[in-house]
Write a structure and sequence with these properties.
Strand content: under 5%
Low-confidence stretches: none
Mean pLDDT: 91
Number of strands: 0
Order of helices and strands: HHHH
Distance between the termini: 29 Å
Shape: globular
Largest sheet: none
Radius of gyration: 14 Å
Oligomer: single chain
Number of helices: 4
Length: about 90
């Protein structure tokens, strides 16, 4: 099943408002990439871990990791955990 693409422009006012409240540059928020990552985590593993994965990705990027590399590593780890590597 394919999900419809996330319309960043539709959600940009919300993103801008919340980013201002927490002191984050809204240019750093790629809603589609976040949805893609969390959707894949939910698909390959446990749905409740999807928002946890978004948090972990944000922590990694906030600590200086490259967003693409951190996302790929997170998805690899989630797939490994789903195969029993995370227990």
């Amino acid at each position: 099943m394919t999900r419809p693409p996330v319309d960043q422009a539709r959600w940009q006012p919300w993103i801008d408002h919340v980013c201002a409240a927490v002191g984050v540059d809204p240019a750093l928020v790629d809603a589609r990439a976040i949805h893609d990552l969390t959707g894949e985590v939910a698909r390959v593993g446990e749905r409740p871990m999807a928002p946890v994965s978004a948090h972990l990705w944000g922590v990694a990027v906030g600590a200086g990791a490259d967003a693409d590399a951190a996302g790929a590593a997170l998805l690899d780890a989630a797939r490994d955990a789903a195969r029993g590597g995370g227990s």
